[in-house]
User: Which sequence fits this backbone?
């Protein structure tokens, strides 16, 4: 299997299996896909407590280990602390480990850089009265709790997610253990070049969620002005030249660029193809350059449900003017 390296030098599979069912798939369906994925060769599984399926995935992991299909040491299992557990990170981590039946987590992420909560499955207009702007001290307190979990052996690596450069600038020098990875939205129409390069320059591996533009994301995240990456003529032309699906082009581009994609699919044909496509027939330098021109600042996960009282709109979450919006 093709491998990449985390910022601390540890090896990690170059593609993972996402488990966010996008409010469209049951925990049983996601767990069945994970079982099929591991049997097909996936070794990196990207989980999160808020996805609501870690218990079912854990049953699959336990079953496959018992059958001798895979050993725990060969799996790279990631989970994330949800926003409402920032003050009780150990409790949340232990629950994920118990549900996943995995003994420890290879990486534990802060899912969002603030404790702003929304109920699972809520609509785009939902707001919590307790939501607050980003706080360096709150974030660092949450992060330091994960550092303690590393010392206890419950967590091997720490990851962050959905960060911005201004937020990083406010906290990186306050952390004892450097983040090994940054999970962020990355696809051909949303390449985030500045943040991508910043992430790499500061020793973090970029991990790409929605690597194909996520045509099956939750309804609340769909906007009529969104662009479908896989429908772009440039992507279709490259796919035609290689005799592959446009989704495979997006994944080949991701790995070729140096970011680790975590696509989600419950269809065996698709998740097997996703795994296989990065192992052969890489895109040419010219094709990579063509895709580099497709940046359209097409953010799909806007995060409206995390807005606080006084925020103007979802743009405030992403510090687009280079300063943290309070």
Assistant:
């Amino acid at each position: 299997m093709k491998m990449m390296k985390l910022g601390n030098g540890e090896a990690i599979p170059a593609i993972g299996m996402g488990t966010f069912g996008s409010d469209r798939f049951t925990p049983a369906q996601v767990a069945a896909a994970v079982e099929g994925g591991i049997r097909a060769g996936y070794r990196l599984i990207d989980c999160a407590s808020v996805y609501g399926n870690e218990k079912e995935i854990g049953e699959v992991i336990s079953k496959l280990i018992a059958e001798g299909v895979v050993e725990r040491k060969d799996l790279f299992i990631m989970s994330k602390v949800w926003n409402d557990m920032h003050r009780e990170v150990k409790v949340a981590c232990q629950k994920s480990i118990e549900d996943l039946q995995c003994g420890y987590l290879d990486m534990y992420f802060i899912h969002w850089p603030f404790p702003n909560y929304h109920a699972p499955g809520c609509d785009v207009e939902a707001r919590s009265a307790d939501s607050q702007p980003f706080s360096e001290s709150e974030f660092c307190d949450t992060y330091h709790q994960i550092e303690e979990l590393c010392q206890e052996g419950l967590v091997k690596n720490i990851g962050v997610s959905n960060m911005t450069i201004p937020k990083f600038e406010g906290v990186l020098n306050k952390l004892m253990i450097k983040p090994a990875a940054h999970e962020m939205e990355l696809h051909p129409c949303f390449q985030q070049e500045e943040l991508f390069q910043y992430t790499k320059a500061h020793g973090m591996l970029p991990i790409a969620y929605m690597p194909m533009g996520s045509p099956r994301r939750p309804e609340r995240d769909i906007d009529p002005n969104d662009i479908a990456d896989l429908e772009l003529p440039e992507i279709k032309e490259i796919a035609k030249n290689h005799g592959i699906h446009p989704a495979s082009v997006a994944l080949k581009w991701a790995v070729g660029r140096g970011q680790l994609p975590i696509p989600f699919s419950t269809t065996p044909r698709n998740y097997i193809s996703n795994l296989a496509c990065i192992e052969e027939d890489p895109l040419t330098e010219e094709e990579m350059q063509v895709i580099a021109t497709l940046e359209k600042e097409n953010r799909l996960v806007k995060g409206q449900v995390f807005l606080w009282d006084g925020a103007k709109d979802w743009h405030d979450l992403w510090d687009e003017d280079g300063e943290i919006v309070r």
Q: What stands out?
A: The chain has one domain: 3-218+225-312. The longest helix spans residues 136-152.
